[in-house]
Amino acid sequence: MTSTQILNKFGIQLQRQRHIIKNGEEEIQACCPFHTDKQPSFYLHEQGLYYYCFGCQASGRIFDVIEAMAGIPRNKVKEMLKGQIPVPTNLQIQQRKQIRDRVPNDNELDVLSYYTHGLHRMLSLQIDHGLPNKAQQGIPKYHDASLWLDYLRNKRGFSDDTIKHFNLGGNANWNKVKLWEMLVDYQHPRLRKEWRQTLYDLRLIRKGGKDYWWKPVIVIPWRYSGQTYYMNARMINPNKKEPRYIGMSGIIKSVFFNDDALDEFDEVYLVEGEFNAIALYENGYPNVVSFGAKNVLAGKGQRTDRLLERLHGKKVILYVDTDRGDPLWEARTKIVSKLNAVCKSVRIIELPLGVDINDYFHQMSRRAGSSQKRTKTEMNGLARSSWERRIVANSTKVPSPFVAMPKRRSQPS
Fold this sequence. Notes:
The protein is of the alpha+beta class. 36% of the residues lie in helices and 16% in strands. The strands form 3 sheets. The chain has a 5-stranded antiparallel sheet with strand order 1-2-3-4-5. Helix 2 crosses helix 3. The radius of gyration is 23 Å and the shape is globular. 36% of the residues are buried. The C terminus is likely disordered.
């Protein structure tokens, strides 16, 4: 069944609903049912049954929409669609007006940090001790994480030290792992119910205890001073009908990825995606920050103002992903204009269409190691040399109107 057929079956009509063709795929565009949406920012894939809201960053499957608007649990929705139980005839459909742009409280941040570290443990234990073995003694129980590690090591080109540095993790329930096994070092039996409710409130697990993702993902925590404030997830093998990234809905990003670099360095690389930032770190550039998306700097809002404040007086090297929908670089022009007003200097890096920073370094490292056997350090050194010689040296310098004075350190709100 398509999304339209499912919505019609439950008598649901989204506000300002219309059908569009996006990238050759049919989608439903409408006002978001999860927050007060003046302009349609909610997209529901017709065949894939998944949605994403560019306003509140809510994402998931159509069953979540029906649960929110009709009050029917998602497991019951699936049974109704299969014809196992009838659809009620007296459903009360409501457009929920929920403002989800909130910052987690201190207790939620603590649980979020424990949770992301627990998901990281599945990878770190296998990095340290190899494949799980029943004969291993004195080691917490863990499960095979080869799928996630193979993606990070081979497809992305990240070292084990880099995986550990950024606390990258994998979703546990895909591998039939009980959530509490991953948190065994931190939880107490009395806290299970409380923690489960907290993770449910953060929309990281469902009522049954399973995590939010329906396929294998790489969990990417956004941390500041060792505390996790937000987490993003990258699907390992998404099909054309599924989103590549799934963030936390309803939680604002009060920090940026690798946020500590803004306090430590006077010159920073500013990039969009987390994997581009990790690739730069992997190749010897710890002074890199990911701001997440173009609209963070091209638009207006608290996050825009906060980032500009943190960048005040710094030297910035900017990389914005190529966008076929913006061939004239209008978004980048807006970003450069704002940076130029507060930064000491701004340089723009350009890469060929279809190649991002992660692709560039991974390709260069593979070329460096293809002709003869070299260590990982040697290959990274050659890739870094090529980056400095070919890319940074040819970056575009934007004339600065004035030299800004640096401001004092700013804490996450």
